[in-house]
Amino acid sequence: MELRWAGPEDAALVEEALLGILNADPDRPAVSAERLRSEPTLSRYRVDFSVDGSVPAAGRPGRHSRDEPARRRPFGIIAEVDGHPVGLVWAVFFPADAPGFGFVSAQAPEVQLWVREEFRRHGTGRTLLGSMVLEARARRLPGLSLSVDAFHPAVGLFFEAGFRTVGAGGHSETMLLALR
Predict the structure, then answer these.
(1) Can you give the residue ranges of every domain in the chain?
(2) Per-residue pLDDT tens for 25-64?
(3) Which DSSP category does 59 fall into?
(4) Is the Cβ–Cβ distance between 78 and 10 less than 8 Å?
(5) How many Å apart are CA 105 and CA 75, to the nearest integer?
(6) What is the rounded distance in angstroms from the CA atom of residue 148 to the CA atom of residue 141?
(7) pTM listed for this prediction
């Protein structure tokens, strides 16, 4: 498995990942691609990485610019097997006056994690999440937040990585990984 930065060419993968995340619970009504694109609370997660948030020096996660504007841009990491994307983790900063579903702080970006079904339970999610945490530490971010349905199998992975529940509502939990 190889890791690489997400870029503008990965917009379709971001959409596929979001639809996979939003439609993970078969007991809930499915979210269509049209709804994902048109509903503001959902479409804002469809970042296209057209402005590189990391300015990678060597084209790989872990080497980045430390200037403040670059640190606040969305950034993502893609796992590939044989040149094909099998998973994606990305972080998006939201302002306090327009928070995301897993918002905790404007300084702690919200993370989304998705792995293709056939690559789950093989360490892909763990590798992606670990890479995101390393990148967040390198950027000196105070933390990472996320929202996850309480039933989701990845909850255990998030706890294992150090995330803790800081809020709950309905079937979802807001989790935070404090980095400082």
Answers:
(1) 2-139
(2) 888 899 999 999 999 889 888 888 876 444 443 345 554 4
(3) S
(4) yes
(5) 17
(6) 21
(7) 0.86
